[in-house]
Amino acid sequence: MLLEVQEGTLNPDEALTQLQRLPFEDLGFARIDHHRNLRSGMPEVVFGEGKSAEAISAIAGRILAHHQRVLVTRVSADKAAEVRASLPDLAYDAVARSLYCVKEPVASPGEGSVAVVTAGTSDLPVAEEAALTLHVAGVEVERVYDVGVAGLHRLLGELERLARVRVVIVVAGMEGALPSVVGGLVDRPVIGVPTSVGYGAALAGFAALLGMLTSCASGVSVVNIDNGFGAAMAALRIVRLSRKQGSDD
Amino acid sequence: MLLEVQEGTLNPDEALTQLQRLPFEDLGFARIDHHRNLRSGMPEVVFGEGKSAEAISAIAGRILAHHQRVLVTRVSADKAAEVRASLPDLAYDAVARSLYCVKEPVASPGEGSVAVVTAGTSDLPVAEEAALTLHVAGVEVERVYDVGVAGLHRLLGELERLARVRVVIVVAGMEGALPSVVGGLVDRPVIGVPTSVGYGAALAGFAALLGMLTSCASGVSVVNIDNGFGAAMAALRIVRLSRKQGSDD
Amino acid sequence: MLLEVQEGTLNPDEALTQLQRLPFEDLGFARIDHHRNLRSGMPEVVFGEGKSAEAISAIAGRILAHHQRVLVTRVSADKAAEVRASLPDLAYDAVARSLYCVKEPVASPGEGSVAVVTAGTSDLPVAEEAALTLHVAGVEVERVYDVGVAGLHRLLGELERLARVRVVIVVAGMEGALPSVVGGLVDRPVIGVPTSVGYGAALAGFAALLGMLTSCASGVSVVNIDNGFGAAMAALRIVRLSRKQGSDD
Amino acid sequence: MLLEVQEGTLNPDEALTQLQRLPFEDLGFARIDHHRNLRSGMPEVVFGEGKSAEAISAIAGRILAHHQRVLVTRVSADKAAEVRASLPDLAYDAVARSLYCVKEPVASPGEGSVAVVTAGTSDLPVAEEAALTLHVAGVEVERVYDVGVAGLHRLLGELERLARVRVVIVVAGMEGALPSVVGGLVDRPVIGVPTSVGYGAALAGFAALLGMLTSCASGVSVVNIDNGFGAAMAALRIVRLSRKQGSDD
Amino acid sequence: MLLEVQEGTLNPDEALTQLQRLPFEDLGFARIDHHRNLRSGMPEVVFGEGKSAEAISAIAGRILAHHQRVLVTRVSADKAAEVRASLPDLAYDAVARSLYCVKEPVASPGEGSVAVVTAGTSDLPVAEEAALTLHVAGVEVERVYDVGVAGLHRLLGELERLARVRVVIVVAGMEGALPSVVGGLVDRPVIGVPTSVGYGAALAGFAALLGMLTSCASGVSVVNIDNGFGAAMAALRIVRLSRKQGSDD
Amino acid sequence: MLLEVQEGTLNPDEALTQLQRLPFEDLGFARIDHHRNLRSGMPEVVFGEGKSAEAISAIAGRILAHHQRVLVTRVSADKAAEVRASLPDLAYDAVARSLYCVKEPVASPGEGSVAVVTAGTSDLPVAEEAALTLHVAGVEVERVYDVGVAGLHRLLGELERLARVRVVIVVAGMEGALPSVVGGLVDRPVIGVPTSVGYGAALAGFAALLGMLTSCASGVSVVNIDNGFGAAMAALRIVRLSRKQGSDD
Amino acid sequence: MLLEVQEGTLNPDEALTQLQRLPFEDLGFARIDHHRNLRSGMPEVVFGEGKSAEAISAIAGRILAHHQRVLVTRVSADKAAEVRASLPDLAYDAVARSLYCVKEPVASPGEGSVAVVTAGTSDLPVAEEAALTLHVAGVEVERVYDVGVAGLHRLLGELERLARVRVVIVVAGMEGALPSVVGGLVDRPVIGVPTSVGYGAALAGFAALLGMLTSCASGVSVVNIDNGFGAAMAALRIVRLSRKQGSDD
Amino acid sequence: MLLEVQEGTLNPDEALTQLQRLPFEDLGFARIDHHRNLRSGMPEVVFGEGKSAEAISAIAGRILAHHQRVLVTRVSADKAAEVRASLPDLAYDAVARSLYCVKEPVASPGEGSVAVVTAGTSDLPVAEEAALTLHVAGVEVERVYDVGVAGLHRLLGELERLARVRVVIVVAGMEGALPSVVGGLVDRPVIGVPTSVGYGAALAGFAALLGMLTSCASGVSVVNIDNGFGAAMAALRIVRLSRKQGSDD
Question: How many angstroms separate the CA atoms of D113 and D171, rounded?
Answer without folding.
Answer: 17
